[in-house]
Amino acid sequence: MGSRRRPLLVGALLAVVAVASCVPGAWSAGEAGNATTTPTFGDNFEITGAEDHVKTSADGQTWYLYLDQKTGVGFQTKQRYLFGWFSMKLKLVGNDSAGVVTAYYMCSDVDAAPQRDELDFEFLGNRTGQPYIIQTNVYHNGVGGREMRHSLWFDPTADFHSYSILWNAKNIV
Predict the structure, then answer these.
(1) Rounded Cα–Cα distance for residues 9 and 21 (Å)
(2) Which of 46, 51, 118, 147 is labelled catalytic?
């Protein structure tokens, strides 16, 4: 991906995620923050979607996101990042979640479609008792075709699990 493109980290929660927290351990393309204070989730992210479907922990470090029959909710970074370690802690909704997709992705620019670069983690909903599937994809200049599906060997609804991307000048891991 081109060095001029700076990705946004987006938690497009089109699905129920009981609780989500995210720590961008990345070098910002914008101004550096104050190192003497611990930033809150809201300092780095903004809500996209139904703001009344978000609750914040007392320390401001965790956002609780809710979905109902009418709407979903999401969030995205306020700044762009050139490189870094991006990690999302998610606990997926249990029981029958067929038709629900929880997405965690990074893109070069939300408005750059159809030519944007993008890295996707998509958790596909399921029927009760069936394994959860994570679908990944990589887009470069708007071209995907690298979609892969993996059955998870653990229950993503039982506890929080971290899903991370290491992005540097030479690799995406």
Answers:
(1) 13
(2) 118
Annotation: CATH topology of 19-24+38-172: Jelly Rolls (2.60.120)
- The position carrying tokens 């995205």 is 76
Tell me the per-residue pLDDT of 127-139, one tens digit each, with 9 for 90 and over.
877 888 889 888 8
Our answer to whether residue 46 is catalytic in this structure is no
- Neighbouring CB atoms inside 10 A of 134's CB total 18
Q: Residue 27: which residues within 8 A CB-CB, separation 6 or more?
A: 81, 82, 83, 84
Largest CA distance in the chain: 47
- Of the listed 31, 46, 51, 122, which one is catalytic? 122
User: Which residues contact residue 91 at a Cβ distance below 8 angstroms, ignoring those fewer than 6 apart?
Assistant: 17, 18, 19, 20, 156, 157, 159, 160, 161
Give the C-alpha separation, 162 to 31, whole Å: 27
- Rounded to 5°, angle at Cα 21 from 156 and 40: 170
CA separation for the pair 138, 119 (Å, rounded): 5
**Which pTM value belongs to this model?**
0.68
